[in-house]
Amino acid sequence: MYLCIDHGPMDQIPRYIKGKLYPGHNEYTHPALEPILNVTYGCMVYQEQVMQIVRDLAGYSLGRADLVRRAMGKKKLDVMAKERDVFINGQLDEDGNIVVPGCVRNGIDENSANKIFDEMAEFAKYAFNKSHAAAYAVVSYRTAYLKAYYKEELMAATLNSFLGNLDKIPIYIDECKNLNIEILKPDINESETRFTVSDNKIRFGLGTIKNVGIGAVDAIVAERNKNGKFENFTSFCERIKDETVNKKCIESLIKAGCFDNLGKNRATLLASFESIIDSINQTARNAMENQVSMFDIMSETEEVKETSKYLFTEMPEMDMKDLLSMEKDMLGLYISGHPLDKYKVYIEKQSNINSLTMLEINDEIAETGYSKKYRDGQPVKYAGIISKIKKKFTKNNTIMGFVTVEDLHGQVEVIVFDSVYTRSNSLLVEDSVVLIEGRISIREDEPVKIVASKISELNDKEEVPINNSIKTIIVNITNFDEPKKVKLRGAIRFFSGDRVNVKIAVKEGEEVKPCGAIFANDKIVTAFKEIAGEENIEIV
Prior knowledge:
Layout: H1 13-21, H2 34-37, H3 47-58, H4 62-73, H5 77-89, E1 91-92, E2 98-100, H6 110-124, H7 130-149, H8 151-161, H9 169-178, E3 183-184, E4 196-198, E5 201-203, H10 214-227, H11 233-239, H12 247-255, H13 266-288, H14 306-309, H15 320-331, H16 344-350, H17 355-368, E6 379-393, E7 399-406, E8 411-416, H18 418-423, E9 433-441, E10 449-457, E11 472-476, H19 482-495, E12 502-508, E13 511-518, H20 522-532, E14 537-539
């Protein structure tokens, strides 16, 4: 028996390939499965096959077969435990009449029936019906082609599809970084309404900026297309007459960095834009009243510099922290950098979960009702910068906090109860960079949260020691009993995740089988030796 991290359809891939390469040599747990699974080389691929198996082998009705499919898909353990006995041994009514014959009555031995039920239960958690699977396959092929040959266009279109759900944007921005696609700030002369591709880079759209409506964006783009790019900030203010482009809209454009390439820094523009707009509006009113201004009598050939025509309050640029904060407020994420960039190495080494993973857990639970990898109460370590704290007094007059902590990808809500709050009071302030040890809280119809058990300052002085010579850990499980395998399996799952540096494999007899990868340092290797026995650990 092999001990691996993942089970289900992925385990069937070698079997499927073998069946496709060598027709007529399909493998079946029992001959009775051949008429059902021969079209998919002996592997369960579609939900309809699960339903047909329980009908043909155990005599289920169509309605009951669908109930089993749903119970397996939703991982309803109590229903599945009951159905296992029915599938194998059948079911009688109160008068002793056969309601469901069961596999044994139909000539299938109990051992095979148990194995078939296990295969169905594991498979059904991930299964689709045939028409759905076929449609997904077509979409997958097309998406793979686009990602290979038109990755920038594909990612821009994907980002545009989530404009109404900005929580998803950081996930795909992160994927762009993995694909070496540069993300550009919005620019008043280059950006369109939505994300666009420019020189193999993706440019933020003006329509993604907070307080900038579609009407305002349409007016800006229309003017730019008609009369050319804006030469400077005042040129923009003079040419845009649409009332939707108001002071609040212009302030948001400045904060998002849209005018960074027009000669004035953001601090100067924020200190000056209102008086400049007022001056332009007053000039327009004077012109309407046929009054002559000082600018009207100037020579048509005389150049008027921006700085002499309008009064700017020149200011030194704000520090990077404030610039990034404004970008985050206007765009929903950081573009020019991140306050945690200098902590990236330490965060990766000291934490084992991040906000992207938390979003994936939310999506997984919404779709299937459970998480394959994470369970309620599972211990985790999460690191980031505190961006918001909400205090609350309980009925017992004790204090608790709801703390928003941002990492490099997004943000997570952390619940801090009284005892932890009291111990960590000095760290619970905005802009503190912290390491949170706690447990995952998974509740129905609520976003996944972390309940803190300890909050400490992130250690950015010492690196976690890693033996870089380690490449693969091979665990010999030939003589392991089941409890020992369960303990080892738990250790492998705990240390696996998004950041891994060591491959792991299991050996049974003379055969070695890869089982994914984990994050390991010298201490973790020692822990594996304690679980498996040093004589059963080989490092190559």
